[in-house]
Each structure stands twice: as structure tokens, then as C-alpha cells.
Design a protein that fits this description.
Elements lengths: L11 E3 L2 E3 L6 E5 L6 E6 L3 H18 L4 H17 L1 H12 L3 H22 L5 E3 L7 E8 L3 E4 L7 H13 L3 E4 L5 H13 L7 E3 L4 H10 L5 E5 L2 H13 L4 E4 L4 E5 L5 H13 L9 E7 L3 H14 L18 H16 L3 E4 L3 E2 L5 E2 L2 E4 L16 E7 L2 H8 L7 E5 L3 H10 L4 E4 L18 E2 L4 H6 L2 E8 L1
Parallel strand pairs: 7-8, 7-10, 8-9, 10-11, 12-13, 12-19, 13-18, 17-18, 19-20
Antiparallel strand pairs: 1-2, 3-4, 5-6, 6-22, 11-21, 14-17, 15-16
Helix pairs in contact: 2-4, 2-5, 2-6, 3-4, 3-6, 4-5, 7-8, 9-10
The protein binds nicotinamide-adenine-dinucleotide (NAD).
Amino acid sequence: MTEAFTYPAPKLFIAGVWRMAGGGSTQPVLNPATGETIGDLPVADEADLDEALAAADAGFKIWRKTSAYDRARILHDAARLMRERSRYIGSVSTTEQGKPLAESSAEAMACADIFDWFAEEARRAYGRIVPSKHPGVRHMVFKEPIGPVAAFAPWNFPTTIPSRKMAAALAAGCSVIIKPAEEAPGSCLELARCLDDAGLPKGVLNVVFGVPADISTYLIASPVIRKVSFTGSTVVGKHLAKLAADGMKPTTMELGGHAPVIVFEDADLDLAVRLSAGAKYRNAGQICIAPTRFYVHDSLHDAFVEKFAAHAKSLKVGAGLDPATAMGPLANRRRLSAMGEFIGDAIGQGATAAAGGEGIGGPGNFWQPTLLSDVPNSARIMNEEPFGPVAVTQRFSSFDEVVEQANRLPYGLAAYAYTRSSRTAADIGDALEAGMIGINFSILTGPETPFGGVKESGHGSEGGHEGLEAYLVTKYVAQG
Ligand code: NAD
């Protein structure tokens, strides 16, 4: 960045008002590249949450009666502002989350695409007329907004993940209380500012921060909230799903993953390395669909490791605001200790560090892009989501064997395969237990395609037509 940039002071956004917490409580926001405190985040108490609930309740009554056409206009206007402000929003994200500015700015542009997509979907929330067996009776099916939504978003994509939730819910006619991650609050607040500036009625969107478990417990128990959406770890997702079940509230759960990548004997090796190494180290590996477990055919394994390791070693690690940086710091210090434990355990069980393997000193949370080869299934990293810049390899020789390995974990979010055979591509697409599969391709996120997992990676989809459907209920009216 050449122009001066000041990190904006974080606030709560409740009933259209930008303010600190009623009780005056705050917690620090840290820059992960320097360890410095960059802001004081207001910590909402129950009185603040009650205000947010009342605002969402009142906002829903206004917004559900706003025509889909007018909702779309406001969402498109907000998308335009996001594009105009993408570099600024990107700078906010990079300063609080760490990823390179080019990634953050591109993500702010992607938010605009998400809002544009859902603005259009809002106008196509069609019901239907069902032919009746009773003379003179009309069977009408309507799609209506489900009601006020409680949404919880993590720190790894601090603009696009909140966008998927807010854009879909707002397009459907729902009001929203969102709790973005306390580690990266400014990004979502800047999106809220775009919506506010675009004329979103007050109370339709509310942004709160605080103690995650306290806020989710309080909001989900409220009779005002009719739908819960969460992105984060499987363990927290299961907990929130149980809270939601008490009020029979539907949930969308985007949880952890541990994506297998199968490199078949006939794969284009250069393509497999280029696409998957790029996807692995993007955002320092803190991506739920990051390729992680590489199953490489015996005949290609060593060449794959050599090329992948060369890529990992070539990446410049540094502060995200430095234009030369290819990989930024990890978002918080918890991830650094997690990397150390995963890698130490794997090497202790016979794995080889073909690239990286260690932290990088300094005040920031930097870790080397790492590749571990020949990692046994008993290693923790073969079973738990690493959520960091570490890839692991194993060798395989038969299709059935590799399918068994790829599907052996309770996760089922993303999976990838590389092959030149259309027969193998079709067979592996059928065999993998995953909500999203990339074959000779690595980009699985777009506003127009469904994003979601199976098994313990969650349920429901964000994106695509399914993304809007998640915030609608079906009402049948029989008129005689
Ligand atoms: P964590 O489980 O403590 O938190 C994950 C996210 O959930 C955070 O944003 C946190 O604020 C939120 N959260 C935690 N408890 C909550 C609660 N009771 N109610 C509402 N929100 C709550 O883990 P972490 O150390 O922040 O992140 C590490 C792990 O989280 C990773 O191993 C990864 O599995 C998972 N994660 C997944 C995603 C994803 O995109 N699916 C994103 C971020 C983190």
C-alpha cells in the first residue's frame, strides 16, 4: 500500500447505530503480522443483545414487506459500494487477518459478486400452482422468508463467509444478527457499512461481538430467532445444532474438512502440483476446503513430492500488506502451536519433511509452507483438520484402496482428483463422499454454485439456488 491506511475503530452495529457496548467492555484486536493491538472491540452484553433482537424483530416486519425488486436494488447498490471500496476493505482484512492484500481485495470483489447474485435470486423465489382434484379449488405454494437469522462467521474469510450468509438471508427477506469473528471484526463491519450506505432499513442487519459461546447461547434461545447459520469447526457446529434443536430451528452448518487429493497414474503432474499447491498455501492453509491429504500413485509419488516441495520453498512468507508476500501469517497464535504439535507428531511417527516444518521467528504468527511425505494414518494430522500451511502425502496403487483411504474420515467437505481418463474422472466423482469435488480443477467457491458438506462437515448449502432456499419456508394455501 502506498496511500495512508488507518484501521477503522470496531463498533457494534445495532438498530442502524454504530456504537460501543452498553457496559463499556472491550477486548483487543491484534495484527497477526506484528502482534500489535490495532483496535478495541466492543464486547456486547445481554442488554446489547436484547436491543439487537428487538431491532431484528422490527426490521423483519419491514423487510419482509419490502418487494423483492426493492430488496434487489439495495443489495445491488451495496455490491457496487463493495467494488468501489474493495481495496480499502481488503486492507482492513489483511491488517486484522494477515492474508496478502491481493487476496483480501479479490475477496472484497467476490463479496460484491455474492450480493449481486443473491439480489437476482431474490426476484426468482417462485412458488407454484398445483392442479387441484377439487373443482374450483386452487392449490398455491408460496416461498416466504423464514424470519430473523442468527449467523456466526469465522476469521479465515472475514468478508466472503459473512457475505454468503448476509446476502442470502437479506435477499430472501430475512433480518439478520451476525456475530463475525472477534479476531477479524472490521471486515464484516465494512460490508455492513456498504449495506447501510446503500439504504438498508435500520435494524434489518445487526452486527455484534463478544464472548462467542455466550452470544450464540443467548441468541439461539431467543424466540425472535428462526434460523441459525454457522461456519466454523465441527465441534462448535455440533454444539450450536443442539442449541438450535431445542427451539426446532433449522440450521445451515458449514464445518471442518480434511480434503483428500487423488493424483492418479495418468494425471497431468504439473497441473496437479500447480493447482493444488496454489490452493494449499492460499490464506496460509486456513481454508476448510484446502487440499490436505495427497494420495499420489506410487509411480508419480516422488516426482510429485519434489515439484510440490519446490513450490512450497519458493513462496515468500511475510506481512500481507507487503506486495511481495505470497503467504501471510497464521491468523492467531493458537494455529502456531497447533502446527508445531501436528508436525512433531507426524515426524515422530516416521514422516519426512520435504519442505518447511517449522515456525519462522519474529513477532508475527509466521509458519513455513510445509510438505510432509509418507505420513502414516496413525499420525494426528491424518485424522484432524490441520487448518494451516501443511500438506501430507501417502502412496497408493489401486482405485479401491485410494477410495477407502479418501473416505475414511468423518469429514466430507471437499475432495479433489487429477486424471486424464474421463472414465476414472466419472468413477472417482461417484465414489468420493464429499459435498464438493474438483476434478482437474481446484476452485469450488462461487456465488452461483452450492457450497456445503456431508457427514460431519455439516449440512445445507450456501451459494447457488440452494443458498436462497436455506432462508425460505414453504407455505401452502388452498383456496376454495
Ligand atoms: P474454534 O472452534 O474456537 O472457533 C471457530 C470459530 O467459531 C471462531 O470464529 C469462533 O469465534 C467461533 N465459535 C467458537 N465457539 C463458538 C460458540 N460457542 N458459538 C459461536 N461461535 C463460536 O476454533 P479456532 O481456534 O478459532 O479455529 C480453529 C478451528 O476452527 C480449525 O481447526 C477449523 O477446524 C475451524 N474453523 C473452520 C472454519 C471453516 O471455514 N469451516 C473457519 C474457521 C475455523
